[in-house]
Amino acid sequence: MKIGLITSGGDAPGMNACVRAVVRSAAQNGLEVIGFIRGYEGILDKDYTVLKNENVAQIIQRGGTILKTARSKRFYEREQRSLAAENLRSLGVDSLIAIGGDGTFTGADLLQKEHGFKVVGVPGTIDNDLFGTDYTIGYDTAINTVVEAVDKIRDTALSHDRIFVVEVMGRDAGFIALRSGLAVGAEAILVPETKTDMGRVLKRLEGRRKSKQSAIVVVAEGDEFGGAEDVAKAIREKYTDREVKVTKLGHIQRGGNPSAMDRVLAGFLGVGAVEAVVKGVSGVMVGMQHKNIVHVPLKNAIKHHQDVDDNLLRITEMLSV
Ligand code: F6P
């Protein structure tokens, strides 16, 4: 039996640790692994490399992905997916393991539905926005990166009595903003999942204005009010005597050595994916719920975007006074 392996969509720290886990557990089960380069693009171009135990040595600690990744536009086309299925079969690949986020899973689901090709997804995205898994690979590292950066911003904000609006990643999801915002003690956190009441945000900063204190406002890039620049503008208009600075953390959040949490999660899910393949399971994402490996239909993982934890929202509100 031969497994095809891809990392696809936005890279996430811990993808390499997962590639290692897939390759090594497949070898233990007597299965071959072919790694396609740049996700679905590599399948379409038949650009691949055979992966053996020795090829995945010394990668557990490395950020990015040795297989490279891409957001394949071509894979949106039905004919291209036919070509992909044909290429996979001509190489003797029986099942595809796809490490990525919602775009990756959408493609995998279509490959299965249209061509009966066996697919197993592994949640790998810094956004943590997939339903059916407590965490996605890369999320823990990303929020730790944010915390480290904002702690530094806090030092200079305090020294100058400035307000900083910090924009973090999350086009459609506020999980990075919410959890890292709580961890840095942000005075306000703006996420796409809840309606932003700018009046309320400004009120929150009111006390700070009087005492000339610094403040940190964390905003997810996908917030409906706008990005960090828009939020800063609104604050400047109301509090004309305050200095308001903007920092966009950007792609720094996607890089770096994976945290211990992400490496361990990647190990569990990589092994879980191979075990699913061995059992003949297909069309599912392998996730982790309360320390248990679970199988969630790909379409549910994508469609039922994880709910924002109400308790987290409540605690954040309560503590950022
Ligand atoms: O999906 C992960 C993510 O980092 C999002 O948070 C962000 O909006 C997006 O990818 C950025 O993608 P790209 O690097 O392709 O611009």
Tell me about this structure.
This protein is α/β, with parallel strands linked by helices. It folds into 2 domains: 2-138 and 258-303, Rossmann fold (3-Layer(aba) Sandwich); 140-254, Phosphofructokinase domain (Rossmann fold, 3-Layer(aba) Sandwich). It has helices at 15-28, 40-45, 78-90, 102-115, 139-160, 175-184, 198-210, 228-238, 260-278, 298-303, 310-319, and strands spanning 2-7, 32-36, 48-51, 95-100, 118-123, 163-168, 188-190, 215-220, 244-248, 284-289, 292-297. A 7-stranded mixed sheet has the order 3-2-1-4-5-10-11, with helices on both faces. Strands 7-8-6-9 form a 4-stranded parallel sheet, with helices on both faces. Strand 1 (2-7), helix 1 (15-28) and strand 2 (32-36) form a beta-alpha-beta unit. The longest helix has 22 residues, at 139-160.
Task: Provide a brief overview of the structure.
This protein is an alpha/beta fold and 321 residues long.
Keywords:
Rossmann fold; 2 domains; 7-stranded mixed beta sheet; binds 6-O-phosphono-beta-D-fructofuranose; allosteric enzyme; 6-phosphofructokinase activity; magnesium
What is the CATH C-level name of the largest domain? Alpha Beta
The CATH architecture designation of the largest domain is: 3-Layer(aba) Sandwich
Number of strands: 11
From the alpha-carbon coordinates, what is the Rg to the nearest angstrom?
21 Å
Helix content: 40-55%
Please write the string of helix (H) and strand (E) elements: EHEHEHEHEHEHEHEHEHEEHH
Give the integer mean of the pLDDT values. Answer: 95
- In spatial order, strands of the major sheet run 3-2-1-4-5-10-11
CATH topology of the largest domain: Rossmann fold
How many domains? Answer: 2
Q: For the terminal residues, how far apart are their CA atoms?
A: 58 Å
What is the general shape?
elongated
> What amount of the residues lies in strands?
15-25%
Number of DSSP helical runs? 11
The small molecules bound here are:
6-O-phosphono-beta-D-fructofuranose
Which class best fits the helix and strand makeup?
alpha/beta
**What composes the largest sheet?**
7 strands, mixed
Low-confidence stretches: none
Pathway: Carbohydrate degradation; glycolysis; D-glyceraldehyde 3-phosphate and glycerone phosphate from D-glucose: step 3/4
Binding site for ATP: 10, 71-72, 101-104
Subcellular location: Cytoplasm
Family: Belongs to the phosphofructokinase type A (PFKA) family. ATP-dependent PFK group I subfamily. Prokaryotic clade 'B1' sub-subfamily.
